[in-house]
């Protein structure tokens, strides 16, 4: 079965997240399970609770966020 474009994008963001943390408690959280229009980085807590760590963003905004994190991780910007 072919994956939808939305599912491929979502999985790509999860791979980006794993580049920066190996902590499996950090997840990509959708704002709306039906539409999934906005996403944020969140942490799974005990008893099924979720603590959202970033604001909810569109896919493009989250992609830019991860690109900025990659630049900082690789020390490509010198202040």
Short key terms for the protein model shown above:
alpha+beta, globular
Radius of gyration over C-alpha positions, nearest whole angstrom: 14 Å
Q: Return the domain count.
A: 1
The strand line-up of the biggest sheet is 1-2-3
Helix and strand pattern: HEEEH
What does this structure look like?
This protein has 79 residues and is of the alpha+beta class. 39% of the residues lie in helices and 18% in strands. The protein has helices at residues 5-20, 59-73; strands at residues 26-30, 39-44, 50-52. Strands 1-2-3 form a 3-stranded antiparallel β-sheet. A hairpin with a 5-residue loop joins strand 2 (39-44) and strand 3. The protein is globular.
SSE blueprint:
Elements: H1 5-20, E1 26-30, E2 39-44, E3 50-52, H2 59-73
Antiparallel strand pairs: 1-2, 2-3
Short description:
By secondary structure, the chain is of the alpha+beta class. It contains two helices and three strands; from the N terminus they run αβββα. The chain has one domain (5-73).
